[in-house]
Amino acid sequence: MHLTKPVNLGELKIYNKKAIDSNTGYSKQELEKIQNLENTIKLNETTMETKMELLDTKTEAEISMENNKLSTLQNNENVQIMVTLLSNSEEYDLYKNPKVEITFPKELNINVKSISQLNLEEQIQIKEARLKENVLTLTLEGEQEGYINNANEGIQIAIIADISIGKTTPTKNTNIEVKLTNENKQGETQYPLKIQSKYGVLMLNKLENYNQAQETLETMDSQETNIELDTYSNEKIATKTIQIINNYEKPISEVSVIGTIEENNMDLSFKDIILPENKNIKIYYSGNNNEWKENIEEVEKAKAYKIIFEDEIGAGELVEIAYSIHIPENLEPKSTGNIKNTLEYKYQENTETTISEIKCSTKSETPKDFNPSNTTNEQDGIKVEIMATSGGQQLKDKDTVKEGQGIYYKIRVTNETNDILTNINLEAINTNAIYYNLIEYEEDVDFIIYTKYRMEEDESLTSKQLKIDTLNPGETKEVSYQVSVKEVEDNNQELTGEIKITADNYEEKTIQNITNKIETGNIKATIQFLYSEDIELYEKSDIPFAVNVKNISDKELEDVIVEIPVAEGLEVASREDLRTY
User: How many CA atoms lie within 13 Å of 392's alpha carbon, on the beta-carbon side?
Assistant: First the structure.
């Protein structure tokens, strides 16, 4: 560097910018060890030396959201999460095959709807995105060629997700954590997030296994609800859970919970009561005389209980009470009963009360029972019933079926012994039938890998294996399988079948299935049955499905009409053009 002589006396400023050329002969490891560059300036007889410190470049990401507050009381739909891999100046690294790991708080239930990259796709692209246990991993492929000098700060990735949070989650501050890996460098950052629950005290009620379908009812605060119990069914032990969450800034005191059963003409009764272990609690019981007693010989004889907390429930604290309710067998139509809980507490000298009530009833008429298609087999105390349906209609013995027709078999097994049955294996054997199999596979949907399932015909199967792990005395469970009728050479063939059943300590027995004569068919229609336990459905969600229609005749068919009833609660959103294969 050469400078001319300054004309006037004053200060001479020299700006010197240096870059390390890639052809210096130094390896990458050697360059990383260089701490500074030396500058030498000679003026007349004076030599001045300076050192320029070398600062290492960094790998860094940012994350942002439209709103950093998420509610526990509703599903937070279409939440936009923006991840930026910073690269708009020389202080940052350029990226080569980077990987981003976004760890969401465990309280969040994440349903990723879409992931899109907003820039630099010609250099780096998203190769894979995988969500597992609240960690979303984005793997990118490619190499960034230069720094971004426009308004964008770096490689931007937009994530759209529905986020729900358990209602029992108290109001709290937490973080979304981001880890960025770029070759041998890493960068980490956090995004502050606030989980916002209902202010005050929240009481959540859950009732489980109160009917044959083992449904679960959930209510919140002073919510009155109606449920329907089974008529003429086995006895059941329902579980009632009460969760109390204090979302005040200070503790609540003098907390009490009163639970009552008004049986009317239902003989409902309490069973075991489970109390929180970390609280000093007293419990009292009452029969029909409304007198509270601290001890009772049989909980089943109580019609009410009172739980008194001697300790405070702190701010942000959750306590849980659970008990069982005995629902008797053979409830008659028009039976009614009530399950009621009353929560009372003090907050800053004010007494507050919350009442939850569940009204129970049975149908006004006897429901249509399982109508087996063949004679019920009750040998050895194991009752087995078989029902076959096709196209929503019940199929009976000696009915005619057509080639390609789909048939759905439901098998109901009842334990009428005094023992617990274990390892109940059923083998369904049908002649002239093709069995359906449940196939598990993975599919990439908007860069997210989902586990999906579909029903497919499997012509290699000669029988269908079904299993029930345990069956308590008096308990009934159902299993099912599906077949399509084979194409046969003549009209003198039949669809027949049998069920072989075994259990631990019981000998194998065989139950005959119904027999149906097979007629020549022209068309085979199947619904492409798809589902995934990874994908959550909400109101207005789309449920795609397809109906496959195949000509199995030896002639061309014209004016084929396919009528598809829409299930209750669903509506047709769109229809793709018909396609032929």
Answer: 4
Predicted model pTM: 0.53
Tell how strand 201-208 and strand 216-220 pair up: antiparallel
- Measure Cα distances from 206 to 194, 436, 483 in Å: 26, 37, 39
Backbone angles phi and psi of 301, in degrees to 5: -85, -10
Helix or strand (DSSP H, E) at 30: helix 28-33
Q: Give SS3 for 87.
A: coil
* HSE-up (13 A, CA, CB side) for residue 289: 3
| Encoded tokens for 487 | 């194409």
Instruction: Give residue-wise pLDDT tens across range 459-514.
Output: 999 999 999 998 888 888 889 999 999 988 877 799 999 999 999 988 888 989 98
Q: Which amino acid is at 498?
A: E
CB atoms within 10 A of CB 456: 13
CA–CA separation, 74 and 53 (whole Å): 54
Q: How far apart are CA 50 and CA 42, in angstroms?
A: 12
Q: Is 118 left (phi over 0), alpha (psi -120 to 50) or beta?
A: alpha
Residues 6+ apart with CB under 8 A from 304: 258, 259, 260, 261, 285, 286, 290
Secondary structure tally for the chain: helices H, strands E: 1, 40
Cα separation of 201 and 245, whole Å? Answer: 6
Quick check: 83 and 160 in contact, CB under 8 A?
A: no
- The SS3 call for residue 380 is helix
pLDDT per residue as tens digits for the range 319-335: 999 988 888 888 888 88
Residue 30's φ and ψ, nearest 5 degrees, are -70, -40
Q: Determine the Cα–Cα distance for residues 28 and 37; give it in Å rounded to an integer.
A: 16
Residues making up the chain, counted from first to last: 581
Q: Which helix (H) or strand (E) holds 32?
A: helix 28-33
Q: What is the DSSP letter of 299?
A: G
